[in-house]
């Protein structure tokens, strides 16, 4: 249902969130919309898809697009696909949040900065600012980055602590066009529950297995059924080798059990109902070696 809004000054637009891997883009989007629709992990390159998160206020609808971290290493098919997702997102957005980590700016940040379109307002978002003990260091750091691009605004934030997110949202609104709402007021994403379920499992795989497991591992939906409030979900974790399968399962199945339990609890919180979840681990090599394989598993 579209909210009853002030048609004269209501604003609605698309906001791209970009930055190098692991600067907290997904955490920031989740915090802005108040729900977990994009997975997070300490492991870089966790986000592989373009994820839309929607926040509707009385005077505006913010349509955030969380993109994969722009890859500057390992020039393979997967990374090329991820980078194309980033650049395509920038073509049609109304504003950009360029996210950097407080106190850290390197060549990878510079390469992402070079992608910013000159005709779209960009806000410099300095994330993880709570980790800087000497706050006096933030100003010279912000000035250093701001000298490299004509930013519409500079906003230090902490996505995890929700520090200055209201200020960031207010700044974003000034750059959105006057439009009617695109989505209903209760929508938080354009992705299906099936997609969100597989993403939740993938997050837990990365969290528990970490750097032991190659990036080419992924999660696919086998079956999704709903009976009243109960959702029956069956997913498969695809890995490339038997040794990777053992990593995911863990000793006597302990790691897979932890992955399953935490995934189910997150799904129940997000979907607002009970979930029956079964997870298998399967060996399927070579799926990320070509673009056809990537498209088969939902990559854009």
Quick summary of this structure?
The chain is 33% helix and 22% strand. It has 300 residues and is α/β, with parallel strands linked by helices. A hairpin with a 2-residue loop joins strand 7 and strand 8.
Give short descriptive properties of this protein:
300 residues, alpha/beta, Rossmann fold, GMP Synthetase, Chain A, domain 3, six-stranded mixed sheet, 9 helices, globular
Structure notes:
- The chain has helices spanning 25-33, 77-91, 107-113, 138-146, 165-173, 193-209, 242-249, 254-271, 291-296, and strands at residues 11-18, 51-56, 60-66, 95-101, 122-127, 153-156, 218-227, 230-239, 275-283.
- It is an alpha/beta fold and 300 residues long.
- It has two domains: 11-173, Rossmann fold (3-Layer(aba) Sandwich); 193-296, K homology (KH) domain (GMP Synthetase, Chain A, domain 3, 2-Layer Sandwich).
- The strands form two sheets. Strands 2-3-1-4-5-6 form a six-stranded mixed beta sheet, sandwiched between helices. A three-stranded mixed beta sheet has the order 7-8-9.
- Helix 6 packs antiparallel against helix 8 (254-271).
- The model is unreliable at 43-47, 69-74, 76-82 and 287-300 (pLDDT under 50).
Rg to the nearest angstrom?
Answer: 20 Å
Widest beta sheet: strand line-up: 2-3-1-4-5-6
Q: What would the average pLDDT be, to the nearest integer?
A: 83
Report the CATH topology name of the largest domain.
Rossmann fold
Largest sheet: number of strands, sense, barrel closure: 6 strands, mixed
Which residues form runs of ≥5 with pLDDT under 50? 43-47, 69-74, 76-82, 287-300
Helix content: 25-40%
Q: Looking at the structure, what is the overall shape? A: globular
């Amino acid at each position: 249902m579209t909210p009853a809004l002030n048609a004269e000054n209501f604003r609605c637009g698309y906001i791209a969130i970009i930055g190098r891997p692991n600067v907290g883009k997904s955490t920031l989007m989740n915090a802005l919309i108040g729900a977990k629709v994009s997975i997070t992990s300490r492991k870089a390159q966790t986000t592989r898809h373009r994820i839309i998160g929607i926040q509707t206020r009385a005077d505006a609808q913010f349509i955030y697009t969380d993109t994969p971290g722009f890859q500057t290493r390992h020039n393979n098919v997967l990374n090329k696909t991820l980078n194309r997702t980033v650049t395509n997102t920038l073509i049609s957005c109304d504003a950009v949040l360029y996210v950097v980590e407080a106190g850290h700016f390197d060549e990878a940040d510079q390469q992402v900065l070079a992608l910013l379109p000159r005709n779209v307002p960009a806000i410099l978002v300095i994330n993880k600012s709570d980790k800087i003990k000497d706050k006096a260091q933030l100003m010279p750091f912000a000035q250093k980055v701001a000298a490299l691009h004509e930013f519409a605004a500079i906003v230090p934030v902490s996505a995890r602590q929700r520090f200055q997110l209201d200020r960031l949202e207010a700044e974003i609104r000034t750059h959105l066009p006057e439009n009617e709402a695109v989505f209903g007021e209760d929508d938080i994403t354009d992705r299906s529950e099936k997609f969100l379920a597989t993403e939740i499992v993938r997050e837990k795989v990365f969290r528990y297995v970490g750097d032991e497991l190659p990036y080419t591992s992924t999660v696919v939906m086998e079956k999704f059924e709903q009976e009243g409030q109960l959702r029956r979900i069956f997913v498969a974790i695809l890995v490339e080798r038997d040794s990777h399968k053992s990593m995911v399962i863990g000793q006597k199945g302990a790691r897979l059990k932890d992955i399953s339990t935490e995934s189910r609890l997150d799904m129940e919180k997000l979907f607002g109902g009970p979930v029956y979840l079964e997870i298998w681990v399967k060996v399927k090599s070579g799926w990320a070696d070509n673009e056809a394989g990537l498209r088969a598993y939902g990559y854009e």
